[in-house]
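Can't paste images in this forum, so I'm doing it all in text. The chain is below; anyone willing to post the predicted structure tokens underneath?
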Amino acid sequence: MPHIVDVSKNRLIGKKIIHLDKVDSTSNYIKRALEAREIIEGTVVRAGIQTKGKGRAGRVWESPPGGLWFSVLLHPRLPLEEMALLSLVFAAGICRGLDKYIEQECKIKWPNDIYLDQKKLAGILLETSSLEEDVYLIVGVGINVNVNRDELGSLNNRAVSLSEYSSADINKDSILTTVLEYMEIYYSDYQQKGFGEILEEFKELCLHLGKRVKIECSSRTVSGTNVGIDSRGRLLVDNGIDIELISAGDVKVL
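Text version of the structure:
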């Protein structure tokens, strides 16, 4: 029996939702459907379990029962450098959506990991795929809603579930509806108004702005104080000598 999720307020994101009990990866499912020309923009693919969930930098994203695991297919029609900023845009939107269910405010560890009480609650992975000359964006989202930490392996001490901070019963359908609504709002605002206002909000939500950080980049490690985020979504890190611009890397708060 399929679950019914009402996202009738949305014009694009979630206008069609595919529910799967189990899949290798919701993002992989979308890629296969694109190749077969069996999927439309705005489709959300949701799974109860992912056997090969994906995180940033090729890591495995543990996706046991109790979590909200889904991907969205979009065709942003933006230059690639502007498309990359959607990672931060959706992080801010999802953060605000999850705040509706708890008293504590969620925070973001740049670029798009959502934290609660210094532990990871949710993550986002952006991937591009093409169909002929059109480039599509697949937004993969994983949210620990009511996940047993014992099923998270080595991550159990660094992760948290939404249910641990809510006095009410957590309904995944309700959370999905809210998160998709906020994704639509922030996506629309970004396309119509640009990144400026969302950037200021992202700074307010940033877990480590003004704090000492260590960033593992692909070929080097950068340490210093995170003094800002620029209009291209890069971290500004004061290493004591000058300001370094970081486009990609794993942040550790010192």
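The longest helix spans residues 172-193. Helices lie at 26-35, 80-84, 86-98, 172-193, 196-205.
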